[in-house]
Amino acid sequence: MAGEGRAQDKTLAMIHTVAGLAGSFGALAREMLPGLPVFHLVDEGLLGRIIREGQVTAAMCRRIVELAANAEQDGADVILLTCSAMSPAVDVAAPLLNIPIFKVDQPMVHQAVAQARRIGVFATVPATLQSVSDLVRREAAEMGREVAVITSLRAEAMAAARAGRREEHDALVREALLSLARQVDVVLVAQASAAEALRPEDVAGLPAPVLTSPRLALARLRDWLSAED
Length: 229
Fold this sequence. Notes:
By secondary structure, the protein is α/β, with parallel strands linked by helices. It has helices spanning 21-32, 44-53, 58-73, 87-93, 106-115, 126-143, 155-162, 166-181, 192-195, 200-204, 213-228, and strands at residues 12-16, 38-42, 78-81, 101-103, 118-123, 148-153, 186-189, 210-212.
């Protein structure tokens, strides 16, 4: 497979703000990048601060920079930040590292801007909604495309997930995505945790295509490994 030859001498670090994503992203990496050593850094306290403060702050970005620096010192050759809310921290961390760091949502956003004009962005955390919407607008400006961003926020879904009511979270996400998909050309699910609520039959029944970040992000990493070969 493309990039597999480099898997033996590269190590991937993933930084998460949701502990459960370490397992799902790890499984996806084993599927798409077999043989690639992977380790995870998790800071769930950061997610709590994002939710409480409602925005990404300089102090939060410093936390990501510190985690990324630790990952580099621990032997990572490339880093993936899986928290879309904290994507702005990648721009802060990148010049300070000697290895590349990737935003989980960048490939998803690029694909959406390239193919659609009315782009829906769904999130369950306000800061995530802001970060991804801003990224869509920046990507559109760089590509010279005019887009309309239509947003949908279901904070109560995140509250349900953090309280252990996963079925309620998933039902709220699916309901919101159905409503948003009726208004746009493509829907972006801004959080990997929300993407896990979608079943194949849910996606097939929506009136607009849905893009999620995990698989597209791993495909981008695979391309990077191939380019390094």
